[in-house]
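Lab notebook, bench 4. Still working through the backlog of constructs that have no structural model yet. Next entry is a single chain of 716 residues. Request: give me the structure tokens for it.
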Amino acid sequence: MQVYSKNFILKLLVVVALVLAIYSPIFKSDIIFGEDSRNIYESYIESPNSLLQIWKNTALTNYCPVTLSSFWIEEKVAKDSALLHHLINIVLHLVNVSLIYLVLSRLGISLAWLVALIFAIHPVNVETVAWVFYRQVLISYLFTLLAIYYFIGDDKSYSIKSIFCFIIALFSKSGAVTLPILLLLITWWRHGEVSLKSIYKLTVYFLLSIISLIWFKVASVPVPSWEIVTSNFDPIKTFSTNLALYVSKTVLPIDLNFIYNMSHQQLVNFLGGFSISFHKFGVIILFILLITSIRLVTRKNTYDIGIFIIITLGSYLILVLPFLVSIDIGIFKNAHIAADHWQYQIIVPMLCFVVIIFRLIFKNIHIAEIAQYIFILILIGSLCYLSFNHTRNFQSQKVLWQNVIKKNPKSYLAQYRLAHHLYVTDEDSDINEISNLLKKVLKIKKDYIPAITDLAQIKYENNNYESAEELLRKVTEVYPNNDKYLTMLGVTLVNQNKVQESNEIFVNLIKLNPKNAKALYHLGRFELNNKNYEKAHDYFYDSYLIDDNDPDTLANLGASKLYLGYQKEALIYFQKSKEISPENDNINSYIAEAYLLAGMDSEAVKVYHESLEKNIYNVVNLNNYAWVLATSKDVTIRDGEKALMLARIAARLTKYENISVLSTLAAALAELGQFEDAVKRLNECIELAKTTGNTGLLERSIKRLEYYKNKQNIYE
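Model written out:
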């Protein structure tokens, strides 16, 4: 007994050393979570009463409270520690390796240690261990193995322990629901029959599985970014295709990819260019295995091996079933139909089968024992090399997704993940590169909302409001009550002078969320421009109460105070605004605009002059300053030549496509007596106003046009 313990410890130390060496590249990895799972993490780990919410809220795409609870504990111990996350995943993997050895040994599988060792270092398991949020697979499999171990034990109390472990497995990942069928198969294997006593013993397991299936189906919500294939879906074809893929990757784990494409060119390459569809290959594999097992069963001296093949094949199919035929898992059309992390729980039966077959071959052809050991060492070394190389892909999300795209250029999901990662986390990323990636996504799948959303936000942040509007309209069709996207759409309309339409959006936003500071602010701007100063003040003040640190709100609240006659209070808010954001040109614009509306043109000119000294390329300030110089009633302020210079700079910057700038350019020309050119520019402005539906500016421009035709200027 003592010798066995020493051997077991020695083997375990070897496995630990190999696993640590294989996964060493991820110890400094920045991959903690994917973006989707990161949102879940932040929502349920970092929120108040988070532990209660983790167990209480079933409205998740994958209800896994045990996994989220483990993250909650880590958050308390070491906040957002990448190393801790990875070490825990590796430890869980090593525990699973030990349990596989114990379970297979208890079931009487020969060479159980070799199966466990291959499982420990197998390349297809890298994705599960390296990608932290797949811990749900690791934990679920750990308790599934414990449930099997206790179920096949001799102690009667083990049944209670087995059921308890099964429940924990279900709360870790829903894929554990197939365990009762596997236990039924194990029972038949061990006793040669399935008695009523055995069925009675399994009743609780089946009831728990049925309840779990109903619960997960009713409570969980679909993933918005996934395309769930509900039409032209062939479960048999999908099942056989994935089976072929999984078998091939288990036996020959090369050219692994985070997302597999639909064509599976790697199979064609593997077959030497001979073209055969992957699902047909899967059917061929099934046929060969079944024929082989039937033939072996009919022979007395190979009966046990034939039964073993049937059992391992049956176990494989049972475990793989929920991953392959469940539409709810989300099959990405033109992106992937399988993922490596789904193989973690299903490759053990296939590894058992392969090990037994090789042992049988070696025995029948009488290969020397030393040659067998050399073969095993070469196999172990090759698997370690492949796993180590695959692990290096998980050093960063950027490297991972670039590798996926290289192998599978048609994967819109990989293109999007890379673009989103660069956009969200990499401050030094080229925005044009990100935009091009998102455009590639939309070429492959034109209605992919996550890509449309990110591209809309990029356009919005770079002031490309016309393109942003088009994209945001698509987004808001899918999310009609989304506060963030509706606000962005409203702002894009404001910046295109579609004031009335934007105002309607902000009014609806306030109904959805009375505390939307941005919507209140823009409603205040609308009322301010319409000289409804009291209403404007109320909107700005409500926005200020929600966010008292927004410089634009402070500046406009000051403006409304100024118009209502409270000059001292107005100056206080102006000062606060400038203290918070001294380099913000928009604030200077609001302050100058307030002075203009209050009839204090000279003060406005000072603000514009100071602002343009710092930044001559601010279109708003250029345009407004030129307007004052061209149209002020104060003759001492008017300066036609300077107004024309500023207006021309603004016009060049806006490529002569901005309505307000064209109107100002016409006014500057009129001030210099160049009325023919003024009429020409104002006509361009009027046509553009008609196209964009800017009725307010259209009416003012038509009124001015009559003056210019009569060679008269108009002052305000």
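Notes after review: The chain is about 70% helix and 0% strand. The mean pLDDT is 78. Flag for follow-up if needed.
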